[in-house]
Design brief:
The chain crosses the membrane at residues 7-25. The chain is α/β, with parallel strands linked by helices. The protein has helices at 2-30, 52-62, 76-84, 149-165, 167-172, 203-221, and strands at residues 36-41, 89-96, 101-108, 111-115, 121-124, 129-131, 141-145, 173-178, 184-188, 194-198, 226-230, 238-241.
């Protein structure tokens, strides 16, 4: 019985200590005022769509009297929603430090293809559209020709992901051209030839044939001997030589 009472008293003491500690921390946090904005763009080395000044501008527009105010004067959830409306932002996180900094962490969207249709736009790895930026140009695969949103959704996006997710093809293929008949022509980084992939059917099998040509055939004949490589046929690769 005595042991049981001792355990209960220990738990009561511990609970009291925690309540006092939380109260002390909250009182201390109430006393903290903001004096600086710290922006951390996690992937700034890879992309430059969003700058520190862009984020600071949003904060100051939403809360013009932020400086010298309590940390509780900033609704962090609302500010995150506002920042996330920027089309280049994938995710933001806002929090305050005990030293009086309002910290904003930014994760940018990652474009994998640039579509040259109309004014042009990017598509990120999640399939979402991103407008082009005046400040930064992402070096990604380029798509042009008879491109529309339905084609992108139904088949083109899968082809783009296949190329960009493969280290070899990502380094080799720089552009995709789509004909009015929904056939695909690939433009490589090395060599003066064009690759006629044909329609999207069995495209992975076609890339296997192309890989064999690149890693075996071209090592013997060279990269600049042909002007066209046709992968449309089932069991063969047709190469047209330059005149």
């Amino acid at each position: 019985m005595l042991r049981k009472i001792t355990v209960i008293l220990i738990w009561i003491s511990l609970l009291g200590y925690l309540l006092v500690s939380f109260s002390f921390v909250n009182e201390k946090k109430d006393a903290i005022v903001l004096h600086d904005i710290k922006v951390k763009i996690k992937d700034s080395i890879d992309s430059g769509f969003v700058s520190n000044k862009d984020v600071e501008k949003i904060v100051k527009k939403q809360y013009p009297d932020w400086e010298g105010n309590s940390v509780y004067a900033i609704n962090k959830e609302i500010l995150e929603e506002k920042i996330n409306q920027v089309p280049y932002v994938k995710k933001s996180e806002v929090y305050s430090s005990l030293t009086g900094n309002l910290v904003v962490e930014i994760h940018q969207r990652n474009p994998i293809v640039r579509v040259l249709h109309g004014r042009g736009y990017y598509i990120d790895e999640e399939g979402k559209k991103m407008p082009l930026s005046r400040k930064f140009t992402s070096r990604v695969l380029v798509v042009s020709g008879a491109v529309n949103e339905q084609l992108i959704k139904e088949e083109l996006f899968d082809l783009v992901k296949f190329i960009t997710n493969d280290e070899f093809w990502r380094s080799q293929i720089t552009q995709i051209y789509v004909t009015s008949g929904k056939e695909y022509i690939l433009v490589p980084r090395v060599g003066a030839h064009k690759i006629e992939l044909g329609r999207i059917d069995n495209y992975q099998k076609k890339f296997k044939k192309l890989y064999a040509l690149y890693t075996d055939g071209f090592t013997k004949t060279g990269w600049n001997k042909y002007k066209r490589i046709n992968l449309k046929y089932e069991n063969q690769v047709v190469c047209t030589k330059k005149n």
